[in-house]
Description:
A hairpin with a 3-residue loop joins strand 11 (202-205) and strand 12 (209-213). This protein folds into two domains: 4-223, no CATH class; 231-365. Helix 6 (221-259) runs antiparallel to helix 7 (269-291), helix 6 (221-259) runs parallel beside helix 8 (300-311) and helix 7 packs antiparallel against helix 9. The strands form three sheets. Strands 1, 4, 5, 6, 7, 9, 10, 11 and 12 form a nine-stranded mixed β-sheet that branches. A two-stranded antiparallel ribbon has the order 2-8. The protein is α+β, with helices and mostly antiparallel strands. It is built from nine helices and 13 strands.
Amino acid sequence: MGTCVRGEAILYRLFDVGYEIRLDQAFDLLGSSAPERPKPVRGEARAIQIKNPPVSVQLGLESVTIGERVQRVEVSARVFDFGVVSLRARLPVPDHLSWEDFVSFGVAAGTSGAWGLFEGCRNRLLDRIRPAIDRFDVSAVSEEYIVYRLHHVEDASGKPLEPDVLPDDEIARLLVGEARPLSEGARKEVVSSRFSYFDDDLAVVSWNAALVVESAPEDTDVQYVLEFANAQLLELRYYDSLLDKELPRTYDEIAAARGRFHLIGRRFSNLLAILQARVADATEAVERIENSLKVTDDVFLARIYGAAMDIFRAATWRRGIDRKVSIVRDAYTMLNAEAQARRGEVMELIVIALIALEIMLALIRH
Length: 366
């Protein structure tokens, strides 16, 4: 046996469940399960500012099938104020497992039916915290992610090894969940975002998964920022899809409003109020997402968070949302200008009619 490892795989599935979650109230509602509101604890974590730390809570044990083996997993959750709940299943692996077997286990975990357990856990959690959720609605949009966590990398005799001994081709295969080796180009792309703070730690971040080597089991800061990035990504995707649905409806509402009879100046008043509310909601929600975590310095955790947001193409999702909000805002401006112009035309007609009436009355009197 060559390189051996000890660690776990942590499956994440994130759901949008409402416009906003009041975390203080959710904390109280989860009081019997000993909830916590932890933040990153490393020294460099001072560069990560979290305005409203999410609530974490243990949800108990569940059974899943990985390959041919039924396994008990610990399930927990993290509740974010911007309307996201993140469910996590921790799958420990046998001690002193060969690296090759760990890769096979990780691939099997990512393609297993374990993802199905999250919906039931989510529903039970929501039953408890629903009073704390504004505009409760479980979206069809969800996000899935895996963190492969190694606490020890060692040789057959138990001597510690540095994580650099783990070959890139197998790291890449683990992160993309492929049983077959990847091409050289694909492999380089998958493992290009890699970070180390000490000689004995490593973080490799990709779109679907990350490999984290951290000798201190209690140090979960890297997982924390990756989970936060996934929660923000989910919200950006959710609002992008929401606006995709809103735009055709907006066009239909404009056409319908133009076809209805209204009192003077009231043709578009209701629609203008609706459009204004949509723009305000989307703008406020995106600002709340982006302000939920701020990076003030370029240190280890901040670089990992920034790389994750780049890999997730968060800026692209944000630009898409901005463009669609701009379309709705332009529609509002156009309708408002049209309504103002019509009111001006009506006022001109009224003035002309009054002048004509005055002339007629004057002629009659003479």
